[in-house]
Amino acid sequence: MEEFHKVRRLPPYVFEQVNRLKASARAxxxxxxxxxxxxxxxxxxxxxxxxxxEAVRDPRTHRYSTSRGIPGLRRAQxxxxxxxxxxxxxxxxxxxxxxGSKEGFANMxxxxxxxxxxxLCPNPTYPIHAFGFIMSGGVIRSLDVVPDASFFSAxxxxxxxxxxxxxxxxxxxxxxxTSYVATLDFYKDVVAFARKHDIIxxxxxxxxxxxxxxxxxxSVLQVPGAMDICVEFTSMSKTFSMPGxxxxxxxxxxxxISALTRVKSYLDxxxxxxxxxxxxxxxxxxGSDIAEVRSIYKRRRDVLVESFxxxxxxxxxxxxxxxxxxxIPGPFKHLGSLEFSKLLVEKAxxxxxxxxxxxxxxxxxVRIALVExxxxxxxxxxxxxxxxxxxxxxxxxxxxxxxxxx
Length: 406
Known about the structure:
Layout: H1 5-8, H2 14-27, E1 33-34, H3 46-56, H4 71-85, E2 95-98, H5 100-112, E3 118-123, H6 127-134, E4 139-144, H7 149-160, E5 168-172, H8 184-197, E6 200-204, E7 230-235, E8 248-252, H9 254-267, H10 273-283, H11 288-311, E9 323-327, H12 336-348, E10 350-351, E11 353-354, E12 365-369, H13 374-388
Parallel strand pairs: 1-10, 3-4, 3-5, 5-6, 6-7
Antiparallel strand pairs: 2-8, 7-8, 9-12, 11-12
């Protein structure tokens, strides 16, 4: 039977191949250490859970909510942006609550994209950044993901050679999967370029609070004039360990927020009201919950880099996010990221995310998520070291551990 038109535009979901291997191995009794999906294992802070329980006892909260978010939640998000970035937002016209940043991106694509519109998107990147627009009839032109001069070279070429002129540019810093962090100067140059060429800027800032250097990642909306062309998406999933709660926001340009709000009004009634009440309390908190989450990920990052390095796999320390973007070790590079990821499940009982799942330019890397505790990360490193020790050099009979290759 012929596939539907929009389904045909979507490639096979490569992560599912690794997921099937994981499930099969676990069914066979293997203890798989899952560093693949970015699914936080940390519990939601107790005060947030308590607020949810309090709100859910009120039967009035069981009715339909409001698609764009309850007023108190939108005010709380405005307060967060004012404190964190020094950006003033109108809760009535410049903020809409979303069911996570993923839904926000997908529905923004529905709101603004006409068939054939060109969207400029970093590669590798989180899949919804590209496929939300592909499902809406858009055409993707890939950009270098590194936030430096090479980004602007690719940007210039894309605008020069795109017919029609690009509609929108997608940003994601701190980046999933690469963990790159953008500077405010980078954003200033992006905004100047986008204003010159009349391009919408859509910024995914889901990892704004998961950083390990002294300087917090900035918001593009801090740039003067950015509000004329930009919308930014944030999520509470990682910041407050609330992934299953599905709570995020789109903020910024009033016209774009209005378009998104209108589309959402036809599609959903918003998150369950007690979730929104609890999310309001989280945003109005003193920030200690955020700091604790950040410190846990930093410790895990340090353990990962150290223990995997000792195992023979050099992993560059990520400056932000809950991921490490790790080059495939030399003896396995020819396999590509999907086959290497399968091999790790089969031979080391460790699951990672193949880089090709984030775009074809990610195929020489895998993404490692910091979603297991420090003990399990060290165990993963030991498993990998044992596997690497059996690798033959040059296809011959001599076994050369990777640690001897450095």
